[in-house]
Design goal:
Blueprint: H1 3-17, H2 43-80, H3 84-146
Helix pairs in contact: 2-3
Protein name: AG1 protein
Organism: Streptomyces albidocamelliae
Length: 148
């Protein structure tokens, strides 16, 4: 391969790469403060998410139960009168019940996980405070021995 051919191949490769997509970084500071990173969540934020999941669980349990009972009654009435729509509504009601259980399980999981996380962080904070306090006590003991 001649040098000119090599240079030509490099130029062609560079031309092909210039049409590729390039992802740029989001500007560091948009006037919102000096927080680093993509995600910042405080205890208040987590409490609100947990509270919303708990509320959704409670309200959806009540309202989905009303919808299920009414749909089951309608399906039974339609089937009793010989309408094929009754069987179809019964099928929809069964799927509704399954999906309701999935959503309620997800809400409970979110709420329970956030409660567990809150308790675990409190335990971690307590442990760290005790460890730091012990180190400070040791340091003070060393300082006393040195005559400070």
């Amino acid at each position: 391969m001649a040098w000119e051919e090599w240079e030509q191949l490099k130029a062609q490769a560079a031309d092909r790469h210039s049409t590729r997509m390039q992802l740029n970084q989001y500007p560091a500071d948009q006037g919102g403060g000096s927080t680093q990173g993509d995600l910042v969540v405080g205890h208040k934020d987590l409490e609100q998410v947990g509270h919303a999941a708990h509320d959704l669980f409670g309200h959806f349990t009540t309202y989905s139960g009303h919808a299920r009972v009414a749909s089951e009654a309608a399906a039974g009435g339609l089937k009793g009168e010989g309408f094929a729509l009754g069987g179809a509504l019964e099928h929809v009601t069964e799927r509704w019940s399954e999906q309701t259980k999935s959503l309620l399980d997800a809400c409970a999981h979110i709420s329970n996980h956030l409660r567990y996380t809150k308790n675990q962080h409190a335990a971690d904070d307590s442990y760290i405070a005790g460890a730091v306090s012990s180190i400070a006590t040791l340091d003070k003991g060393f300082d006393d021995r040195k005559g400070h």
